[in-house]
Fold:
Amino acid sequence: MARTGSRTAWLIIALIALAPSCSLEPSPPPPAGTFTFGVFGDGPYRVWEVGRFRHMMRDVSKSDVGWLIHVGDIFWYPCSDANYKRSLRALNSIECPVVYTPGDNEWTDCHAKMAGGHPPLERLDYLRKTFYGDPSRSLGKRRMSIQAQSQEGRYPELVENARWVRGGFVFITIHMVGSENGTEDFRGRRPDSDAEAARRIEGSLEWMHEAFALADSIAAHGVVIAMHGSPGLQYHPRPRPGFEAFLDQLETRVKAFKGPVLLIHGDGHEYHVDHSLRDRATYEPLANFTRLETLGSPDIGWVRVVVDSVAGDFVSFEPRVMKRWWIW
Structure:
């Protein structure tokens, strides 16, 4: 017993001694004529990831990013009111503006027994009321003005689809999630779930169409699209179910647009930056397209993106991964 107590004491002393080193090296200052933003998603899932999530929030808060895009999956299970509110408090504790688009864990998958057996559409309604009380403003301590698709009248329920313009780039979020974009079957699925998926996809595609139209009208450098679900770019032109119409329109718009297009998503939990959208006729990669898949559980971290607002291009992508032993 004495030996065990001694080991515990030494462990506590070691953790205290290491505590000041629990931070990453600062990012290099961005070059002149650039701006930065951050991307995060798919976490924390498990209790031992919460400490790393706190470190990540502090890292983002002391960074130079203008805003953080959260691409969804704010928790794993259960889909309880308490989990939504806890996640909202966390996002609102981050110093910079936070623009959040939902993932499948927050509502689509809530029918599962381990998630609480909730009707997904009821959870979607609660999610919208909880996180989008004022859809014209971001989350975060320092909020910024954004345009919500719901403000335009045709899709009043799509409070989560946002748009803003910075540094010559048009940014949008679109509500497209994992679980085959909400089309995946489950026991007890009803026709209203099919109707919801069809309307949400239709509205999101219209929102993307308007983003490119706006970019053309203001001679924007580029377009940035953020969403949760991985659309299956590697399977194009036979993508994952639920994403066919999205990839058809994405390819058409990217080919017609002269500037760079960045697609940001989560869902796969692996960091990738590539040019994986291909022309269906030639199977050649579309040179003006870039895909960023952000980190996810069990890795907790975020990606710092540097954008050149003069040349109109993406300068760098910096993954900032929290150490796995940062559990406190």
Remarks:
- The helical segments are 2-18, 50-61, 81-92, 120-131, 178-182, 191-217, 244-256.
- The chain has one domain: 2-321.
